[in-house]
């Protein structure tokens, strides 16, 4: 019985993990859909240090980042994945607003779970069909 259960669960878990990995590809656009705001880091060093601190939580040490080195992205704003860093654990992103203050920001892969893939209309001249 255990073997049958393992045989059924293993392919499903591999499929789900591969689906999650493949959705974060360079060149794709994402829009913040969950939560009210997320943080984008100005410097990759800050993102790495915060990630290390979260991994090895030490109650006697505090890791802080200057608030001037962060950008709080708001719900509905879009980002573009520009480059994968450290085997996909971090991404260099471009903020897709009218006038971003910086050319690029950095985000940890775990924080991308609050984002949804933004799919543009493949035929911009056509209006989408609405079914009632």
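^ Assign residues to that structure.
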């Amino acid at each position: 019985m255990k073997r049958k259960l393992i045989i059924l669960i293993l392919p499903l878990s591999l499929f789900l993990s591969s689906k999650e990995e493949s959705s974060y590809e360079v060149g794709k656009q994402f829009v913040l859909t969950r939560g009210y705001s997320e943080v984008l880091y100005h410097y990759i060093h800050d993102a790495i240090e915060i990630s290390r601190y979260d991994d090895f939580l030490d109650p006697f040490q505090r890791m802080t980042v200057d608030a001037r080195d962060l950008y709080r992205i708001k719900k509905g704003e879009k980002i573009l994945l520009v480059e994968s860093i450290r085997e996909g654990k971090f991404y260099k992103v471009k903020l897709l607003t009218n006038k971003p203050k910086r050319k690029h920001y950095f985000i940890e892969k775990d924080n991308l779970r609050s984002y949804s893939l933004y799919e543009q209309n493949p035929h911009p001249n056509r209006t989408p069909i609405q079914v009632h």
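Residues 35-117 form one domain.
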